[in-house]
Design goal:
This protein is an alpha/beta fold and 230 residues long. The chain is 28% helix and 21% strand. α5 runs parallel beside α8. The longest helix is centred in the N-terminal third of the chain and has 15 residues. It starts with a strand and ends with a helix.
């Protein structure tokens, strides 16, 4: 039976494929204040702006490809039961070959009904005002905006508690509740933290290995270190 490797990934792993993050120094996401494009209030204020913003992100996603970090992570399934918990809304993990990906913050290539959050559709083209479900309710991006509940959190907590190894790759550990998952790991399991600008994690009960590198380089080192446990 393979040991379970649970990996929390963030914007840093997708950035190497050309997908920008609003956590850049200017605090903007592709030139927009996140309040305007990633909150329920922004949607209520100007849904056309929000739809256009995500249409642009969706088009951009279809033009980029997974990078070495994604590929190494997918390849680890040969030796481990790998579960990815991602804060990213792209599908680069899946396209790289990862088979177990849990999206905490939604998915760009899906939309949902504004009336029924469980009515979700695959969507790879532009989403426009007037695109509705069968009952006539407007469709919206299937994105968990700031201030909304995170439906996948319970599953993420379960996976984290069951992990034999836990890795954090390319996330600033600033966005909660995702950032708090690391605190739910079982005592003494190894934790690996890959980020070019890692923050201090003073309260961990676990053996911690910090790899201060970008995701693709750090994933190569992680793979090397994990081979000692096979």
């Amino acid at each position: 039976m393979k040991q379970k490797l649970v990996v929390l990934t963030g914007a840093g792993i997708s950035a190497e494929s050309g997908i920008k993050t609003f956590r850049d120094s200017d605090g903007l996401w592709e030139g927009h204040n996140v309040v305007d494009v990633a909150t329920p209030e922004g949607w209520q204020k100007d849904p056309h702006l929000v739809l256009d913003f995500y249409n642009q992100r969706r088009r951009q996603l279809l033009e980029v490809i997974p990078n070495l970090g994604h590929q190494i992570l997918a390849g680890l399934e040969a030796d481990f039961e790998v579960h990815i918990i991602t804060q990213n809304v792209d599908n680069l993990h899946e396209r790289a070959g990862s088979s177990k990906v849990l999206h905490l913050h939604g998915e760009l290539l899906k939309v949902r009904s504004t009336k029924n959050a469980n009515l979700i559709f695959d969507w790879s083209t532009d989403l426009n005002w007037g695109d509705v479900d069968a009952q006539g309710h407007q469709l919206r991006p299937h994105i968990v905006w700031f201030g909304e509940e995170v439906p996948a959190l319970e599953e993420a907590l379960r996976l984290t508690q069951e992990a034999d190894f836990f890795a954090v790759v390319g996330t600033s550990l600033q966005v909660y509740p995702a950032a708090g998952l690391i605190e739910f790991t079982a005592p003494k399991i190894p934790i690996f933290y890959i980020d070019p600008k890692p923050i201090a994690l003073p309260n961990l009960r676990n053996p911690l290995t910090v790899i201060p590198e970008m995701a693709s380089i750090g994933m190569q080192e992680l793979k090397s270190r994990l081979t000692h446990f096979i």
